[in-house]
Amino acid sequence: MASHMLFCFWVLLLFVNNAAGETRHYKFNVEYLNVTRLCHTRTVLTVNQKFPGPRLVAREGDRVIVKVVNHIANNVTIHWHGVRQLTTGWSDGPSYITQCPIQANQSYIYNFTITGQRGTLWWHAHISWLRVSIYGPIIILPKRNESYPFAKPDKEVTIMLGEWFNSDPEAIISQALQTGAGPNVSDAYTINGYPGPLYNCSSKDTYTLKVKPGKTYLLRLINAALNDELFFSIANHTVTVVEGDAVYTKPFVTDKLIITPGQTTNVLLKTKPEFPNATFLMAARPYFTGQGTIDNSTTVGILEYEHPSHHNHQSSKNLTIIQPVLPPINATGFAVNFTGKFRSLGNAKYPANVPKTVDKKFFFTVGLGTNPCPKNTTCQGPNNSSKFAASVNNVSFQFPTIAILQAYYFGQNGVYTTDFPTQPLIPFNYTGTAPNNTNVMNGTRAVVLPFNTSVELVMQDTSILGAESHPLHLHGYNFFIVGQGFGNYDPNKDPLKFNLVDPMERNTASVPAGGWVAIRFFADNPGAWFMHCHLDVHTSWGLRMAWIVLDGPGPNQKLQPPPSDLPQC
């Protein structure tokens, strides 16, 4: 009897542990590493001297504790991109929004639980342009005894798209902000840190994915590039899209994709049933419609089939190499059409809990603008008489000197104001001829939302200094993309076409070039949450703002107190 009771107790304990998840400990040492690409060697900032950085693996429901130790001279923070951070805003990571940065020789422990999420996300530095090399994947496995809503793949592979600069990116953005000019562009794109054979001196620096015939591979694709949306394709292969931003999708087949910085896309690759007597290239190159300069190059990796007689290495050297066909650089039609194919599963197990009614509506213009040149200086921005800027509702966001979340929690006045405009102060023909005055306002303004407010936000691109696609990322939330279109948003006609049945749920969504996107979400996560363009040049210019969500009445609806090791400014 006693042994039976003991057995029942162990089963119960096992069940409880299963339900609660494990605690996973990681240590991230931010360190220098000399890296050579394109025959240029430079000191790169990394985590644990890895470029790209180490994988963070957890299961849905796990608690994750990461001790970040800063061994470099730069201030640093780490953002866990797409992790909801329910009531744990102190661990979100954007500098001067949820925390002061970790200074040299200091450390900070990020402590959060992964709730109701499974799939591919990623982590990256969140101060200045440090994320160009401080980044890595977050792989959230389903709970134990849970499976994918698709056939289990034979193997899983992470593919991170990135950007390489021959010179120091911090010097590049620093100089650009000083002169008001557009910053120098990157020298290469990378696949898992490697540029590939199309670049000078890089044939050895090529990523190769070795596959076997007749197998299914889950590719976890992440765009970690700094400033560029990227097309991606594998020659002579189609893939099935099954997930975006760690949300399962209704599967659809495609031979090419577009992924914006910040976004992740999981695809199933079914290899050819027999050895194909060819080697296939995978490639990524930019999508861009703006007026500035662009790194218009292509990174390439190799999809290599294992030869049946794989002892004979010569055979693979003489195979035909097949290249993929990617859309043209300005293929806005493809980009918007592809985005529109994403649909939530929207079933009982994975419901799409989109707000059907709306408490608060917001209309934000997003785009470029100018700041006047300071007196007695010359600038290299538009017309050589101004500095490039970017804004949301014509407000270019300025970082405070202490974190907004600290000021909010401790009731410190004078750090930010709560008068962020809910719509443009001066309406104009947003996608038509740009107004003569392109100057922005500068300020540290936020929107305050009561807990659980249902929000509808329409983001409208403008033609000021060129219509451009803007991938907007909202921290602390997933949101539903209920509609998108070209031209100026029509508040009377366009909502009639909104998808409130199975809209895609994401953490990063593109505002189409010369168009608009409409999103909805419940403000159910208390704290201060950054929203910004994930093209870092636009973020640096001020295309960013903050939402402050108040505590709810319940015990699990309140922002937790700050940890004792929270960095000081």
TrEMBL record:
GO terms for molecular function: copper ion binding; hydroquinone:oxygen oxidoreductase activity. It is found in: Secreted, Extracellular space, Apoplast. Its EC number is 1.10.3.2. Gene3D superfamilies: Cupredoxins - blue copper proteins (2.60.40.420). The keyword Metal-binding applies. Keywords: Apoplast, Copper, Glycoprotein, Lignin degradation, Metal-binding, Oxidoreductase, Repeat, Secreted, Signal. It catalyses: 4 hydroquinone + O2 = 4 benzosemiquinone + 2 H2O. CDD domains: CuRO_1_LCC_plant (cd13849), CuRO_2_LCC_plant (cd13875), CuRO_3_LCC_plant (cd13897). Residues 1-21 form the signal peptide. Its main location: secreted. Residues 30-144, 156-307, 421-551 form the Plastocyanin-like domain. The keyword Metal-binding applies. Its cofactor is Cu cation. GO terms for biological process: lignin catabolic process. Lignin degradation and detoxification of lignin-derived products. Belongs to the multicopper oxidase family. This is Laccase. It comes from Gossypium aridum.
